């Protein structure tokens, strides 16, 4: 950074001690996300240790920067330099986390997406592992697993098997009273999330968007649409629905 | 013990730290006041995606910045000059192959490339490294293979198309590139001080620059994810050329991490395999958060010129490779 470059950092630039302060604040908010488990609203579980390491790096660098700035300040009271003003924006994610306290993705984002069901292509002869053993009278499956088996298992291994699914409610704007059991699948972070949805048929109740439900039911075949361009959703014939309050990890 | 700046400035903002502390305190205390106002679906979705991109990218940025700090503190320009081939025409493919060795996302490779340029490595080679590293490293290729279990050629095609793109853009830079576009990176020469002090100063400088711009890119990407209307994609898939262009632009707008984009691409099953390959080759080279990062590390005009070139080369290369191999 030369002097002329430095001049372009306006008077709004980040002072040395504030640079360090920003890094320490980022580190603290990173540790908080880990300790409260809230990081799972944003990224996958495997990001835990990278986050811990990054927060620690930010903390050490930030603390050292503040310490140095304050030492230098005592030595020379009138001369310091400023970092780029754009650096202040590192405070934006902190402010958003504190002010909005973002929730996991829910019905709002599901309704903004092009509808997709599963990541499997529609090909023939996919073989599936045997179903897991039932607990409390039903087999526990993820929405992804259920959808893939429901749509692509040519041996109809799901037929007549009671299955238990877990997800949240997204109301169907096109069929009044109908809704989809939904869960997001993420590969890296919430920005690449896509909704996996199962249509519920039969004895359903009236639930608000984003209500978490445990649903037991059985498989029924999906009606294919005529032109083949619509996305397919797996369907479940519902026998019991339970509202659940302590939410699991938000994503599959 | 001076840091990256050669000339200390006269104080104009002695209140930076006070301002920061006050802003943090206000954010903590202000939540009850604004909670109702911010409690709409769009705001909540935007916030979740915005924070998610930041949380996902900052560790990789920290890794990139730390590596770039080590380059600044440990690797002398003479050492780098000895390792990288002398002739720039050969240095470019060498840099492309070196990209295989950095298992990370694209956010980390921008500050590293900036530091390489600052340390006197030929800019064309540094830029090839910038494009290759996030696209051809083993983590990304394995993720691609896992996302497309039924078509093993996809990861091979991705490797080829990304490598050809990186090397082509490097050679184009060699022929037509202008050094003044690299402004900030070239001036970012680390001055004296102990090894730790040089490391600290280089890291903090890079985090402030690149991190600030990363936040801009994350905000833009989150906005687009909230604004792009539902089902708009479903109608486009049928025309081959429109599909390719759509997914190329979508890759720029969505700004998905290169380790994750294969999973998204595999979900876009209404598009042709070639169009989805274009999505995976364009994304790690040019997207909103990368453009913002590059503007921060090099210069704004660089981001425009380099981004456009990369977009065109990546789209063409991936289209050809996809047609031949998939």
The helix count of chain B comes to 15
The averaged pLDDT of chain B comes out at 83
Tell me the radius of gyration of chain B. Answer: 21 Å
The overall pLDDT average of chain A reads 81
Largest sheet of chain A: 5 strands, mixed, barrel
From the N-terminal CA to the C-terminal CA of chain B, the straight-line distance is 57 Å
Describe the structure.
The complex is a heterodimer of chains A (252) and B (326). Chain A is built from six helices and nine strands. Chain A is an alpha+beta fold and 252 residues long. In chain A, a hairpin with a 7-residue loop joins strand 5 and strand 6. Helices cover 74% and strands 1% of the residues of chain B. Chain B contains 15 helices and one strand. The termini of chain B are far apart. Strand 2 of chain A pairs antiparallel with strand 1 of chain B.
Features:
heterodimer; A: 252 residues; alpha+beta; five-stranded mixed β-barrel; disordered N terminus; B: 326 residues; mainly alpha; flat
In a few lines, what is going on in this structure?
Chain A is α+β, with helices and mostly antiparallel strands and 252 residues long. Chain A contains 6 helices and 9 strands, in the order H-E-H-H-E-E-H-H-E-H-E-E-E-E-E.
């Amino acid at each position: 950074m030369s002097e002329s470059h430095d001049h372009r950092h306006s008077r709004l630039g980040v002072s040395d001690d504030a640079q360090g302060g920003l890094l320490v604040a980022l580190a603290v908010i990173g540790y908080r996300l880990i300790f409260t488990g809230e990081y799972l609203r944003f990224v996958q579980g495997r990001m835990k240790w990278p986050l811990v390491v990054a927060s620690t790096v930010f903390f050490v660098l930030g603390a050292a920067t503040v310490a140095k700035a304050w030492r230098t300040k005592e030595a020379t009271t009138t001369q310091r330099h400023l970092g780029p003003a754009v650096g202040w924006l590192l405070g934006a994610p902190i402010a958003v986390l504190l002010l909005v306290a973002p929730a996991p993705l829910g019905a709002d984002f599901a309704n903004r997406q092009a509808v997709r069901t599963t990541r499997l292509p529609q090909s023939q002869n996919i073989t599936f592992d045997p179903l897991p053993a039932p607990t409390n009278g039903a087999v526990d499956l993820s929405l992804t697993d259920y959808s893939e088996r429901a749509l692509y298992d040519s041996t109809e291994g799901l037929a007549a098997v009671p299955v238990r699914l877990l997800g949240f409610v997204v109301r169907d704007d096109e069929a009044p009273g109908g809704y989809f059991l939904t869960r997001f699948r993420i590969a890296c972070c919430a920005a690449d999330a896509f909704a996996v949805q199962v249509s519920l048929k039969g004895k359903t109740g009236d639930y608000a968007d984003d209500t978490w439900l445990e649903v037991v039911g059985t498989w029924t075949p999906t009606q294919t649409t005529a032109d083949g361009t619509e996305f397919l959703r797996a369907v479940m014939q519902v026998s019991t629905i339970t509202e659940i309050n302590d939410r699991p990890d938000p994503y599959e | 013990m001076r840091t990256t700046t050669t000339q200390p400035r006269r104080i104009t903002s002695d209140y930076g730290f006070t301002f920061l502390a006050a802003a943090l305190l206000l954010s903590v205390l202000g939540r009850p006041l604004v909670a109702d106002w911010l409690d709409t679906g769009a705001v909540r979705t935007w916030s979740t995606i915005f924070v998610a991109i930041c949380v996902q990218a900052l560790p990789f940025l920290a890794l990139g910045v730390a590596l770039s700090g080590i380059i600044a503190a440990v690797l002398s320009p003479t050492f780098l000059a000895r390792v990288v081939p002398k002739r720039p025409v050969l240095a470019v493919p060498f840099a492309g192959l070196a990209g295989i060795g950095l298992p990370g996302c694209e956010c980390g490779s921008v500050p590293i490339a900036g530091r390489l340029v600052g340390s006197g490595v030929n800019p064309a080679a540094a830029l090839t490294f910038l494009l290759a590293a996030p696209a051809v490293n083993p983590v990304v290729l394995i993720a691609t293979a896992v996302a497309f279990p039924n078509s093993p050629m996809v990861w091979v095609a991705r490797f080829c198309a990304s490598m050809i793109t990186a090397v082509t853009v490097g050679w184009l830079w060699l022929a037509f590139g202008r050094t003044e576009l690299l402004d900030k990176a070239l001036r970012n020469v680390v001055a004296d001080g102990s090894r730790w002090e040089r490391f600290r100063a280089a890291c903090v400088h890079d985090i402030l620059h690149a991190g600030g711009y990363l936040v801009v890119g994350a905000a833009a990407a989150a906005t687009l994810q909230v604004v792009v209307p539902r089902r708009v994609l479903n109608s486009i898939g049928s025309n081959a050329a429109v599909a390719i262009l759509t997914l190329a632009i979508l890759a720029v707008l969505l700004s998905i991490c290169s380790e994750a984009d294969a999973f998204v691409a595999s979900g876009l099953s209404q598009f042709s395999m070639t169009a989805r390959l274009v999505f995976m080759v364009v994304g790690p080279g040019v997207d909103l958060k990368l453009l913002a990062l590059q503007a921060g590390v090099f210069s704004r005009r660089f981001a425009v010129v380099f981004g456009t070139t990369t977009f065109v080369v990546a789209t063409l290369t991936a289209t050809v490779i996809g047609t031949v191999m998939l």
